[in-house]
């Protein structure tokens, strides 16, 4: 029991030491980010000096608008690149998921078994079910329609076209329509 207590005390001490180290590392990272941000702003954003005349203010506004436009273009380009890369990542992860074979199908074997034998295997020998699928089917006679008779009686299509061409053929079609 003393060994167990010592081991748990040591674990707790190591855990608290690790948490303290992690907290100091987080603080260092935050300070480094702040310094990096200040350096970037000092490099890319010169201090603002407001000119006194109206002409100089207009020129400054034009420069700022041009800078804003260029930054917006860069932002748009980076957003488009980011969208493309995220789409590619999604596609690749889907391909990887498919290649891993999460849905691996077992090799299927042919089984020769009738429907009755399958039911007997599933339901047991108690239930006797007969699976004659064709017994309850209705007999259907095929009726010939007028269109099929016409198509069969037409014969050669060239004769049919020659008969319907010209005014006589149109007259026949018109009279047939009435």
Helices and strands in order:
Layout: H1 2-44, H2 54-100, H3 115-123, H4 146-154, H5 157-164, H6 166-177
What does this protein look like?
By secondary structure, the protein is mainly α. Among the domains are: 1-47; 55-104. 72% of the residues lie in helices and 0% in strands. The protein has six helices and no strands. The chain has helices at 2-44, 54-100, 115-123, 146-154, 157-164, 166-177. The radius of gyration is 43 Å and the shape is flat.
Describe the structure using short key phrases.
178 residues; mainly alpha; coiled coil
Share of β-strand residues: under 5%
Mean pLDDT, to the nearest integer, reads: 79
Radius of gyration: 43 Å
Question: Would you count the extended β strands for me?
Answer: 0
User: Biggest sheet, in brief?
Assistant: none
- The helix content is over 70%
Q: State the helix count.
A: 6
Structural class, judged by helices and strands?
Answer: mainly alpha
Straight-line N-to-C gap? 111 Å
**Could you list the spans in which at least 5 consecutive residues all have pLDDT below 50?**
none
The 3D shape can be described as flat
GO cellular component, one term: troponin complex
InterPro entries: Troponin, Troponin_I, Troponin_sf
Coiled coil: 14-102
Family: Belongs to the troponin I family.
